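Most newcomers find our protein records easier to grasp once they have seen one. The structure tokens are whole numbers drawn from a learned vocabulary of backbone shapes. The record below serves as our worked example for the rest of this section.
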Amino acid sequence: MVLRYPLWKKILLWAICLMAVIFALPNLINKDKFPFPIVFDYVSTVNLGLDLRGGAHLLLQVNAAEVIQEQLETLADSARQILKREQIVASRPTIQNKRLLVVQLADPRQVDKFIAAINRENEEISTVYIDGGEIGFALQETLIRNLQIDTVDQSIEIIRRRIDETGTREPLIQRQGSSRIVVQVPGLRDPESLKSLIGQTAKLTFHLVSQQVAASSNDIPAGYIRVASRDRTPNGEPLEYYIITQRALVSGENLRDAGVTFDQNNQPAVDFTFDSAGAFKFGAVTSGNIGRQLAILLDNEVVSAPVIQSAIIGGNGIITGNFTVAEATELGILLRAGALPAALDVVEERSVGPGLGSDSIEAGKKAFIIALIGVALFILFIYGQFGFFANIALLVNIMLIVSVLSILQATLTLPGIAGIVLTIGMAVDANVLIFERIREEYRNGRTPIESIDSGYRQAFVTILDANITTLIAAFLLFILGAGPIKGFAVTLSIGVFTSMFCAIVLSRYFVISWAIRNKDRDYLPLT
């Protein structure tokens, strides 16, 4: 066994311990009583969860009628194509009362032919009435009900992604009734920013701009719509209008990533990357329309409308639009999370108190401290001086966990505390395995140095195996879980790494330092 630590290892080891203390102490000591208050300007504390501190509460109404309207518009587009293909003369299909698609045929004798053709391509529609050549279609109730359920479920998932990209904030997001969503975010002091982040639909689409029709024209041809630009005058009026194709050529559903960048004028912008399917569509659109304007729409407003100079086949692009850095960052988050399927209306907004009373929180603190002292005394009694080393490593382990949570700005809830307690138990267990192995080797006649070497070497495999299986379980909990389950997985994973460091590296350093000082003595402080 090499009883020597290189200087760089010692410096690194103590630097890690010092950083753990610096980042952890602001969480454990009152700011007014902290001897170095300047540290609070650079070190953040762990956020407490809803059950410990409370937070912001929003009740949102999902406007599923928009999704039904989009389905009817898709049906109207399908009807126009069928009329053209079957050479049936009719007026332009229109949507009435946001629930009916009405088609007026010039020849009533072609009604059956048209109904048969549209039913072949659209199975989930019903014919409501036939009045001469006029036909009314509606979506089936089963389809409408499934659309409403899917819209709320998709909205919940996208809200979760927007609020909690890293899985450390632990928001409470759940359905209430058939069309409402409850959102509670712990410790949030600015509910307006939350509403801005949640409320924006962030629906990104790409359309070609008409070359034949002026934006000021009231005679808009079939298949085209007029939309306003995102830029506004001082009076709030749109600077420009565009006549664009009603059908989106490429949509944000094919986005793989989005983030902040800067354009040629060093202004903030948003760059985006399509997946393979989106890159193929985008390449086909740009290669076939060189010289035409391509309107980039965000929530039905034209953000920019550049002229296609050449085919863009790499699947990458950039969105400019007089953004600030904060706006570009928020837009990148929204695009990465995905577009909401429908608009959300805030029904209720209020602050909520902690889920646990102050008495319960104080009782939990006392229980944690008593349990920690009890474990420390037990280890000290059983393993003597080596137990003292293990207790020091255990305290450093706790500080490391708290400091990492502070750096990640994680939210600590009861499940997260359970993860910390579990890893503390694992850290103690690792030291017990090592010390028992050292004791066994010493009783079999080995020297203290040989016993220490063999104990750490042979216990390492067992400790590594146990921690890897725990990490696998934590990884699956993080991937498949949500909210507090993810928080438990995060703290458990952090604790696995810190307990390994403290048991295998830090306590080993203390034991080796003891062995160096007592290399001429034939005893171990374990018996």
